[in-house]
Amino acid sequence: MNTRAAAIVILGAGSLPVARKIAAALPGARIHGLKSRVADADIAFEEFGPALRDLFASDTPIIVLCATGIVVRALSPLLQDKRAEPPVVVVAEDGSAIVPLLGGLRGVNDLARRIGSALETAPAITTTGEVRFGTTLELAPDGYVLANPAAGKRFMSDLLAGAKVRIEGAAPWLLETRLPIDPAGTLTIRVTPKAVTPAEGELVFHPRAVRIDVQSGAADRVMAALDAQGLSPLAVACVVAAEKDAADPAIHDVAKALDRPLRIVAALDTDPVKLSVADAPIDPASIGRARGKLSVIGIGPGWLDWRTPEAQRDLAQADDLIGYETYLRMAGPFAPHQIVHATDNREEMARAHHAFALAAQGRSVAVVSSGDPGIFAMAAAVLEALHENADPAWHGVELKIVPGISAAQAAAARSGAPLGHDFCIISLSDNLKPWDVIERRLSLAAQADLVLALYNPISRARPTQLAQALTAIRAHRAPQTPVVLGRDIGRPDESLRVVTLGALDPADVDMRTVVIVGSSTTTAFDGARWVYTPRWYGGKKPVSEA
């Protein structure tokens, strides 16, 4: 079953009313609209095929309001493993038809039924087992997992051919189906938390009924404990740790290896590893709190096409979004259930502390940065805040840094390849470091013949420092050296100019400009339309460089 929030894809404004009805029925769903035709979508895309394939590759459930053939042609290059593909539902633009197209083993029919309820339209379910028996045995219901899914197709074929099935164990979801259940059946459905080898003509379902309590230092005993009691790892519902052990990476690794959620409770019994088996599947959400998640996300310059699918996915899955209000506007819009915490741009450490405080409660938090979060942005502040805090709840948070396209990369791409050889990035802001340190680094980098990307080049508080920086650079760099001035690249008002170092006027630069000063080998051509720094150095081109 796929539990990600769905993407509703539309190609025209006329589909918006139906798309909004569907979105209202699916928590977290966002409407993706073709940029040239839909002004009010949650997310805009430039081209239908690439956008659809990106969503499919990121395992996002997809609902498309258009003709079925268009979707088939767009996704056909990606269709390889039916057990891995996300649900894809095609809906007529007026809502009059609902076709579950792909993802039969990932819950597409259930998704189609939910859409059908919202639109008051019966979905066109064509799966043979569903039509005849009212169930798809290859898709286990919530709380259960099928141990031998490869046997499901043959099993269903035998049922369709007239075989009867007997049930061993409690399978309440099958009692409302039209399966030919017979105690003397030649086929068997067995439901057990035990590790068993399925026989010929048998499907084995494991209820997620095993709770594993594990203390710090005992994580390596978990698999042996399961084996000793004859329990299948697939029957595990969750791994549970005490608050004091929330930061133990070995416990995190166990939960990851079992592909089950880690739940945090105030305290546990003294047993290093304790296994509890319930009579029915366990809802992990009923135990303690979730392990919180904190994603520090780089959204790039702001243009959606330059944002990674991972960044987009983590933004959509966050409960809370924290960041400078300008960057949050660029990252949005967000779903109604998501909480936005906008702050001033100078409150980095307060932002980081707030993010950990929320994540330590079990929430999923996204800290939003423009560009790349690890380049003069929030990743360093988040890691510093964690380093300076000994709270195990903070260290137990799942922390990830999601990269983005930096301003230097964006300006370089627009102008060609000025960063094609060794380069460095230096901020001219002296808010957090002394000016004499900046000036020394500029001089040394210029002497080393590195391409320089200058961030925060000028502001009202620092009107003269760019001129001082250029003086340091010009002492070691020729006047004809190409300089790229990229302002707001990837945003609606972007501009790009290429000048020479000798002609560069600080008045042509503002705080939103990144300045790339070439090295001795950097070249501009075609009327300075293109700028590049060749990969070779020292007067001759090598055969290759490892």
Describe the structure in brief.
The chain is an alpha/beta fold. The protein is built from 16 helices and 28 strands.
Task: Give a short account of the largest sheet.
Answer: 6 strands, mixed
Helical run tally: 16
What is the CATH class of the largest domain?
A: Alpha Beta
Write the CATH architecture name of the largest domain. Answer: 2-Layer Sandwich
- Considering the protein shown, what is the CATH homologous superfamily of the largest domain? Tetrapyrrole methylase, C-terminal domain
* Overall radius of gyration: 29 Å
Q: Please tell me the total number of domains.
A: 5
**Percent of residues in β-strands:** 15-25%
Shape: globular
Mean pLDDT: 92
Distance between the termini: 44 Å
Strand order of the largest sheet: 3-2-1-4-5-6
Strands, total number: 28
Structural class: alpha/beta
CATH topology of the largest domain: Methyltransferase, Cobalt-precorrin-4 Transmethylase, Domain 2
Helix content: 25-40%
Description:
The strands form 6 sheets. A 6-stranded mixed beta sheet has the order 3-2-1-4-5-6, sandwiched between helices. Strands 14-11-12-13-15 form a 5-stranded mixed beta sheet, with helices on one face. Strands 18-17-19-16-20 form a 5-stranded parallel beta sheet, with helices on both faces. With 546 residues, it is an alpha/beta fold. It folds into 5 domains: 7-126, Rossmann fold, CATH 3.40.50.11220; 144-207, no CATH class; 210-289, no CATH class; 292-405, Cobalt-precorrin-4 Transmethylase, domain 1, CATH 3.40.1010; 408-532, Methyltransferase, Cobalt-precorrin-4 Transmethylase, Domain 2 (2-Layer Sandwich), CATH 3.30.950.10. It starts with 6 loop residues before the first strand and ends in a 14-residue tail after the last strand. The model has no long low-confidence stretch (mean pLDDT 92). The radius of gyration is 29 Å and the shape is globular. The protein has 16 helices and 28 strands. Helix 1 (16-25) packs across helix 4.
